[in-house]
Structure formats: C-alpha cells, structure tokens
C-alpha cells in the first residue's frame, strides 16, 4: 500500500488550523522589500521626522497583527495583562518570531538598595547526580547562600554551547550571571574569535536601567532591518529602526498598554557602529493601573 | 600584503561609481581614474565584438609588465576590476566577494541611487575587511 501523506482538505478557511508554517523567509528578499518601503516613503515626505512617523505606522500594522497571531498560536488565546508579562512577551516571543532570537530587556528603575554580601561559587552539578546531600554539605561549608531555590530566575539565555546567561532576582536585587566556557588553546583562531564576539555581545546587552520608572529599553547590536543600511551623513540621527519601534508600539497598544516607542542610535565606546536602542515609555494610566493591581 | 593596487567599480554606461587605492603604487588623480574607467568600459565592449569565439563576455584579465588587471562583469553590466601585482592569486574569488558586498550593502540600501557614486559606510567597512583578509580564507569560500 502506498502511504499517501495526510493532507486534510478544509473546505472552510475558518476550520483550518493555525499552523506555524515555514518559519524562515529569505533575508535578501526582506531587505529589498524593506528598502523599497523606505524609498517609497521617502518620496512621500519632505522631512525626516515625517519619514520616521510613516515607517512607524507601517510597523504598527505589523505589530497589531503579530499580537493577534501569537496570542492564538503560542498563548492559547490568552493575552498578557501585566506590564512585565507583556514586556517579556515582546522581547522573547515576538522578537524570536520576527528576528529569530530573543533579546535582553533592561528595566527602568533597577538600582542597588542597601549593601549585602554575596558569595558566588561555581560547581559542576552534573557529575554529582544522586549526591545532593554531599552538595549541600559543601555549600554550607563554603557559605554559599543561594544554590538552588530562594531566588527567581527571570530569564535564561543560552547563546551557544559555550555561553549562557541567566538573570536572577535575589531579595530585590537583579543579578546577571554569564557563564562562559572559553575555547582551549588548540582550537582554531576562528572559533576563538567567535567566542569573544559572542561574549562581547552578551556583556553589551546587559545594560543598566534608566532613572525613569516608566521607561524600558530593548537594546540591539545590529537590528535586522538595519543590517544593510548605511544612513547618509545629511540625514543625521535618522534610524530605520523606527519600523521596529512601530511594531513594538503596535503590540503594546493593542494589548492595552499605550506607550510611546522610539528607536535611537547609541554610540558604543571602541566600536565603529552604534547600537540601536528601542525606548518604550508607557502612558501614565498604564503605570497607575499596574500600581492598583499591586 | 600590498598585492592590490586599486579597485574600481563602473556602472553599465561606463561611469566610475567607486574607486579606492590601496598603497601608493599606481595611484592616479581623479581625472585619470575617470578616464581609465570609461576607457576600460569601451575596450571591454570592443573585445566582445572582436572575439572570434561566440558568447565572449569581454576581457577578464589584462597582464602587463608591472601589473595585472582582473575584471568581473555582473549580469546587469556593472563592472568590478582590481589592479594588482603581477601574478597575484585568487583575484576572481575576491571580485566575486566584492560583488556580493555590493549587492548586500549598496543595492539593499534604500538611500543609494542606482548608477550613482557609491557612498555607503557599511560597504566601505566590509570592503576594507575583505581586502585585508587573508587570501586563503577567501579561497575557501
């Protein structure tokens, strides 16, 4: 018997499942399309602010749709209602679907309160399977206060086999822990170079928060839409990331979190190319509601 | 290093749109560069007509006593050529790579006008990296 692939025919479009479909699109095709989008909008405007606004509007429509789609596909028809929830949705789920990777978000108003002493140890737990009592004894002896439990893991990011970053919240403080496994001397120069570049990127993305409580930032070394774009000198601080800012605004506003979202170039010391920061400033009512919810 | 003297890009009508000198050898002023570009464009076209073989794509390599000139023409008629030391290796793959950079950082840039001089920061950065890079690495591509 010939095994025919099970392709079910749905007569009604509404009965068709929301399949994930093909996850990849050609970067070149996207780059050309985006380039045409910018060129077309350039002919319609007479100043840069207007161009930025038009790009943002184009992104807004994408954001509104992506929220709808992802809520159905990933969240089982549920929508985030809390501020941190929606932010984490934006920088992990949305970012991953759009750009193929998740991004670290820096929160506003994160500061150091009081002083405390933290002892950090590293231990290869994998080889201690079934010896948890011994592990606890060692930890007590070495005065390691947090080993497993007692803290909240906000984010785990595994960059590759050699690099991993976790974000912990311990007693009101935020810790970023980056675990790096450096390549040994016998390996290729290429592997080493890659490792240091990745490490740089991880370290770069862990930024300090701002002084404002209502501002959040998503920082990206090289935004996908900016990959092939060189801004001419006479256009000043214009950033095509306005399109991505529009997407973020589209997601947030349609989820009930009105915000002003802007994209900025931020120069990095010792690097030729500036990085792009997407600044999210929430409306007053959002923060007030968040405070009421507690 | 110093195997490459200079790099030129000319558009399909023979206008010079990009020119860069590496090292001081064989340096020319702007007028001479423009002249060389249009001269090369015509010679390339004539060679296609004169060739006894059918389907000739034009001159690919010109060898002189003091330099070699390697030329690569894209399907749309944009020509890339490098002037280099006699006997320098892997120039074809370098030219192909430069063409790749051109399609990426020039053609996908919304602020570039077709057939106009190339002024793209990212193209310059990636180009200088490619030229400095070890030739062996390019060959391995």
From TrEMBL, chain A:
Its main location: endoplasmic reticulum. It is found in: Endoplasmic reticulum; Golgi apparatus. One of its GO terms (cellular component) is endoplasmic reticulum. Keywords: Endoplasmic reticulum, ER-Golgi transport, Golgi apparatus, Transport. GO terms for biological process: endoplasmic reticulum to Golgi vesicle-mediated transport. SUPFAM superfamilies: Ligand-binding domain in the NO signalling and Golgi transport. It comes from the Eukaryota. Belongs to the TRAPP small subunits family. BET3 subfamily. This is Trafficking protein particle complex subunit. It comes from Solanum verrucosum.
TrEMBL record, chain B:
One of its GO terms (biological process) is endoplasmic reticulum to Golgi vesicle-mediated transport. GO terms for cellular component: endoplasmic reticulum; Golgi apparatus; TRAPP complex. Keywords: Endoplasmic reticulum, ER-Golgi transport, Golgi apparatus, Transport. CDD domains: TRAPPC4_synbindin. It is found in: Endoplasmic reticulum; Golgi apparatus, cis-Golgi network; Golgi apparatus. The keyword Endoplasmic reticulum applies. Belongs to the TRAPP small subunits family. TRAPPC4 subfamily. This is Trafficking protein particle complex subunit. It comes from Solanum commersonii (Commerson's wild potato). The lineage of its organism: Eukaryota, Viridiplantae, Streptophyta, Embryophyta, Tracheophyta.
């Amino acid at each position: 018997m010939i095994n025919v692939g099970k392709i079910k025919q749905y007569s009604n479009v509404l009965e068709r499942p929301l399949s994930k479909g093909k996850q990849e699109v050609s970067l070149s095709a996207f780059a050309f399309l985006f380039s045409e989008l910018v060129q077309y909008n350039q002919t319609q405007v007479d100043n840069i602010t207007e161009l930025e606004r038009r790009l943002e509007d184009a992104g807004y429509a994408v954001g509104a749709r992506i929220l709808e789609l992802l809520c159905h596909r990933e969240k089982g028809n549920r929508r985030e209602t809390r501020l941190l929830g929606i932010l984490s949705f934006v920088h992990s789920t949305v970012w991953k679907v759009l750009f193929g990777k998740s991004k670290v978000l820096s929160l506003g108003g994160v500061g150091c309160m009081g002083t405390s002493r933290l002892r950090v140890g590293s231990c290869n737990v994998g080889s201690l399977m079934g010896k948890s009592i011994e592990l606890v004894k060692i930890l007590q002896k070495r005065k390691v206060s947090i080993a497993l439990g007692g803290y909240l893991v906000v984010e785990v990011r595994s960059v590759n086999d050699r690099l991993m970053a976790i974000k912990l919240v311990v007693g009101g403080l935020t810790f970023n822990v980056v675990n790096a496994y450096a390549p040994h001397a016998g390996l290729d120069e290429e592997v080493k170079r890659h490792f240091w570049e990745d490490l740089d990127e991880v370290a770069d993305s862990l930024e300090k928060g701002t002084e404002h409580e209502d501002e959040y930032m998503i920082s990206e070394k090289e935004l996908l839409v900016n990959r092939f774009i060189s801004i001419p000198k006479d256009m000043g601080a214009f950033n095509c990331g306005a399109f991505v800012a529009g997407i973020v605004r589209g997601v947030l506003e349609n989820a009930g979190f009105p915000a002003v979202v802007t994209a900025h170039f931020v120069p990095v010391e010792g690097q030729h190319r500036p990085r792009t920061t997407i600044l999210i400033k929430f409306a007053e009512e959002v923060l007030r509601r968040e405070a009421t919810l507690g | 290093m110093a195997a490459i003297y200079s790099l030129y890009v000319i558009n399909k009508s023979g206008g010079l749109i990009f020119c860069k000198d590496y090292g001081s050898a064989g340096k020319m002023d702007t007028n001479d560069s423009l002249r060389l570009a249009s001269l090369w464009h015509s010679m390339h076209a004539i060679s296609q007509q004169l060739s006894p073989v059918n389907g000739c794509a034009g001159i690919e390599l010109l060898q002189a006593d003091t330099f070699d000139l390697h030329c690569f023409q894209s399907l749309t008629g944009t020509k890339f050529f490098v002037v280099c030391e006699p006997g320098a290796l892997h120039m074809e793959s370098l030219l192909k790579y430069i063409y790749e950079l051109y399609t990426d950082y020039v053609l996908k840039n919304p602020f570039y006008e077709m057939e106009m001089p190339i002024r793209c920061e990212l193209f310059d950065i990636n180009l200088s990296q490619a030229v400095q890079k070890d030739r062996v690495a390019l060959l391995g591509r």
